[in-house]
Amino acid sequence: MNLVKINHQLPDLLISVCDVTTKMAETLRSYLGADQLISPPAGDHVINLQMTGNQYLDAALMSTRIEDLPGFRRRETSCRNIFQEEFCVTLRCVDRVRLVARQALIHPHYHPFVRVKLDELKSNVVKTSRNFVKAMLLPLINAITKSPADHIITQALNDLIHLGSMDTSLISHIISTSKIIPAIIKTMTSRSDKRNRFLCLRALSAVCCSGDVLGELERCGGVDAVAGLLVTSQQDPDIQVECAGVLAQITSPWIKNKPRLDSLILWTHHIIQTFLDIITSQLTGSVKRLLNREGLLIVFGAVNHVTALHPDSLNIIASKHNINILINQINQMYSPGIHMTEQVINIITNLVKTYPSSVINNSVILEYISTLFSEDSTLVTILVDSYEDSNGIHEKMTDENVLLSVINIALRISNIDSKIFDEKKLLCHIQNLKELLNRNVKIVEALSKLEIFLDDEITDDYLQNENNDTLQL
Predict the structure, then answer these.
(1) pTM (2 decimals)?
(2) What would the 3-class secondary structure string for the chain be?
(3) N or C: which end of the chain has fewer CB within 10 A?
(4) How far apart are CA 316 and CA 179, in angstroms?
(5) Could you report the per-residue pLDDT of 107-159, keeping only the tens digit for each?
(6) Average pLDDT, stretch 148-176?
(7) Dihedral sign, CA of 152, 158, 164, 166?
């Protein structure tokens, strides 16, 4: 197999798909232009315009067959790495067509034919794109399953990782119906080359973003393979972090129509214990190389997702104060970041619901929650910061949700035992936070609710003490 030849052919095919979809979008825009939408035609002119529109759309539909694409016959040399960017252009063109469709459907006189023709157009574009993706995946599968050369497999896996990062439902559908997932698992378990094993795990993290792909991963034994590799790779932190990345991805809550991963249930306790061992080794320095913040975040995320999906595994976190391992790791870091804090707070939230005694009897958790109410905590600093770029806005949204969770945790703990926190000190922090974050309505309302509860408890304690003093007198 000549991968070089394949890589020259695919970009030309893709560019042709882009050309066709661009022409279809331009045709529709010229037919449904701004002037025509502002001044709708009437009478017989509507019928003539509809017939003209049918002819334009039919002409566009005829050119969407894969065998009619000029690039399918004309294969000139092209840059190998162009396919990812150009395929994104293709998808954007399809979105333009959908936008025009929505504009057209606002006007009733377009309904009889535009709806049907645009559905046909969409169907043909999807078929064309699927043919393209299939043509691109076939050499990747052949490279992974049939090539004895490690460097060819490495090249194919890198291409697949780039493809998976595009995260489209079309690509997920093609991957789930091809043999690419079993091929990756076979390569990962049968080859001794560490780099390709690493890339196999990275590829699984990239493509396992839909329920269909997860189902294929479960059917071919992929979950067992990843979990087994995690548990048996104590001397290889790079491989363990990549395994954690796959497990965090396949258990993430944002994947829709996620299938039941029965094989994962058998591994959850081993997985959580392995993650705790990884973090413990980082704390004690018993490893040759410490993980960076990104690696630790992946491990923390995997613990959060696995325990949320399988609450039974929380008993490992609850027993022997194992949650302290995560908290101590965060406290040891100069700047753990909001996302790592988010993972720990989510785990503590689940602990409060499932094993409340493990929280109220754990001084490390209580102290950690108390410090997050401080005006100097990372959560408060981020919300007070006025930096408003796109990343800053996203970070603030995450930070707000985390702080709301912290307030809810404090409220739950106080409901269980009102003497857990230093109420006067916590009330002082709450009042300061309300002043600092007075523009954030959600935070202020949540803080007020906790403040009222603590005020009532202090009042009840005061009255109880007064009654006791009166009885003594």
Answers:
(1) 0.74
(2) CCHHHHHHHHHHHHHHHHHHHHHHHHHHHHHCCHHHHHCCCCCHHHHHHHHHHHHHHHHHHHCCCHHHCHHHHCCCCCCHHHHHHHHHHHHHHHHHHHHHHHHHCCCHHHHHHHHHHHHHHHHHHHHHHHHHHHHHHHHHHHHHHHCCCHHHHHHHHHHHHHHHCCCCHHHHHHHHHCCHHHHHHHHHHHCCCHHHHHHHHHHHHHHCCCHHHHHHHHHCCHHHHHHHHHHCCCCCHHHHHHHHHHHHHHCCCCCCCCCCCHHHHCCHHHHHHHHHHHHHHHHHCCCCCCCCHHHHHHHHHHHHHHHHHCHHHHHHHHHHHCHHHHHHHHHHCCCCCHHHHHHHHHHHHHHHHHCHHHHHCCHHHHHHHHHHCCCCCHHHHHHHCCCCCHHHHHHHHHHHHHHHHHHHHHHHHHHHCCCCCCHHHHHHHHHHHHHHCCCCHHHHHHHHHHHHHHHHHHHHHHHHHHHHHHHHC
(3) C
(4) 37
(5) 555 555 555 655 665 565 566 566 666 666 677 777 777 767 788 888 888 88
(6) 77
(7) negative
Residues in the chain: 473
d(CA 473, CA 466): 11
Q: What's the longest Cα–Cα distance across the chain?
A: 104
459 CB burial (10 A radius; 0-12, 13-18, 19+): exposed
Please give the angle made by the CA atoms of 303, 168 and 305, to the nearest 5 degrees. 10
Question: Which of 170, 350, 59, 215 lies closest to 358 in space, CA to CA?
Answer: 350
Write the pLDDT tens digit of every residue in 216-238: 999 999 999 999 999 999 889 99
What are 131's two structure tokens?
A: 């043919």
User: pLDDT, tens digit, for every residue of 73-88?
Assistant: 333 333 333 344 444 5
> End-to-end distance of the chain based on CA atoms, in angstroms?
99
